[in-house]
What does this fold into?
Amino acid sequence: MNYIETDGVKIVLRNFGKIDPLKVEEYVARGGYESLKKALTAMTPEAVIEEVKASGLRGRGGAGFPTGLKWSFTKKDADQKYIVCNADEGEPGTAKDRLIMTGDPHGLIEGMAIAGYAIGATKGFIYCRGEYTTSINTLNHAINQARENGFLGENLFGTDFTFNLEVRSGAGAYVCGEETALIESIEGHRGMPRFKPPFPGGAGLWGKPTVVNNVETLANVPVILDKGADWYKSIGTEKSAGTKIFILCGNLRNTGALELPFGMTVREVMETYGGGLLTGRDLQMVHLGGAASGIMPPALIDTPLTYEDLQAVGQGLGSGVILAIDDQKDFMSYICSNTHFFEHESCGKCTPCREGTARINEILHRIAAGDGTLEDLDNLKDLGEMMQISALCGLGQAAPTPVLTSLEHFMDKYVEAVSGKKNEVNEEAVATEAIHKSYYEAAPIKLD
Amino acid sequence: MINLTIDGKQVQAESGMTILQAAKANGIEIPTFCYDPALSKAGACRICVVEVEGARLLAAACVAPIYEGMVVHTNSEKVQKSRRINLELLWANHNQDCLTCEKAGECKLQELCYKYGVTESRFEGKKRNLPIFDDNPFYIRDYNKCINCGKCIRACQEIQINETYDFVDRGFNTHPDTAYRVDLMAKESPCVFCGNCVAVCPTGALTSKINRGTFRTWEVEKKVKTTCTYCGCGCGLELNVIGNKVVRVTPDLSGTTPNEHGALCTKGRFGFDFINREDRLTNPLIKENGKFRKASWEEALDLIASKLKGIADVNGGNSLMFLSSARTTNEENYLMQKLSRAVFKTNNVDHCARL
It folds into this structure.
């Protein structure tokens, strides 16, 4: 497991490598479950939500929605509410949630219990990626320990608050990282997203008000309650408070995951912690945030890694993966592997995504093979823009982003591909298994 | 009531309505594929997308709730472009045999492609290549024409409550099929061949086998509203007639019949071939000297009345028994027991459904 140590402040990885994750007493010795105790015995649920709101914490799953606000939107009156942790972590190249789940599982459990108290949920589910067997085992072990030690169960810390947790395993579908498809999956249905509204906060799991938060988001919560919103807000930037786990991968000297305050530029992170590119190679592009995020040209790598700065240049932070691609990688092959991924992962529910991802992939392959035309480029743009505004869920809306952003920044490569010589497409490189393999080889941390 | 603006028109609609319902209530049509008022909502086909001012994304009108002050454009350039691309995508992955398709003339895909001027697709390429399922006497499933609206699945789950289908495969290859992909006739299949899935299918994916290839949908001259005679439920039917011949049965969707949502059973929907058969009994027969001869209704009823009365006069009413039929209405069954009890003073009355 390649974890890159930094000098700066750590929040979600504060205990990583410093405790034995299988021993609850080591977590407690470092102040663990004190924040839960504080919340239950000294704070009202509203006060917890206000504190999280004031901290500026935003969702770490990719969308960056303010967490406190999401909690406050949860329907008030209900006989049952749920807190669900999205631990499906399907974004290619991303392995941040796994670090938390395997390195500090109690941090997540404590965060969930506090979130449950804040929104009035007595039951939580952790929907964990099925391939993460170590994470699932670690979490189950930690949940049992927490229950035995009175951190989960009935009448926690002598209050009337009851909270229980269960781990549910995914079965390999990327779309189950979308919160409503995840809920469908927990309910035992085929993993297909629901239309919104109603949002989960109104009617989610089994129709009950439900908050779905990412692992990294929830792992921030105990620290916010412990050190206060003001302290938390002092880290990072004004609109991107706190820290983020970034994952360096691709053609860098050093790859791995690291926790950094928001605000460093892409270049700084790649050079300081990634060691830069191999000698004699130039940066071709950076794929930032995961498969569904934009392709960043070298001209933009001085953009700070914050929600607001990236948004201003038409990019996104996504899951925090920084995939550097040097000039040795064939541009079209990379784009094709990305479009193939989305064709493979579309659930098939809505027309724009089901048909659109397949056609984008088909056109890209045609272009890569040297059989493309300039009209193909127009068609890609038309189709991609239609998907962005018409698809049912985030998957279909975001799937064309790499193609559209690369059309914007790398039009010369497309024009060259459609007007020039016939190219050899490495079919093997874009076959499903090969793609998954290449993504995970690019990722610093091997699968469990 | 909620005040909103649709296509520049100030309108009012009931709170809780969707954009689609509010538009419809105000005479504005929005195209749909996966929407059916009788079924749960899917929001999946995205053909009903509309532009809502202030929203980044287009909204699916069939599921998006209205709110006070909402400004909706149901036919803006952005909306039309999205719908056209949607149709191009469906058309590119469609078995384009409109010339011989049973559904031609009633196909929703055909209708909308016509309306939006989609004569060809820019996205032609691979197509699904699925087998055509001809595994039962009633209908054919050709998912190469399926647009994945999912209405057949929901009709089976929510109207018939048999849960025969769900989606199988993923992405581009997604289509409805049975659990474990068994034939509809297989004993593991819960299908009862009610055909409610066929009735809701917007394309030629699910089509009836009865009179297949013998008429075009637009040749139907009249639709005669009638009541199904198979049982006492009294389902409303429309007999589709060409040249005094019933070519198919469709449900009466007027909402005034007992079969809610136009649900029919396999008999009511597919069991009409007897109507035009030559050996169909069309008048009463009286047996004389071991041979039947044709008689008028008056003569037959007079004969029955006199015989019954004669037996009752000699041996009493309890020497008779009245057996009624499931193929008559409740009212007729009521009259039968009235005849038995009040006229012939006997409780010997029963019904074939108890046998």
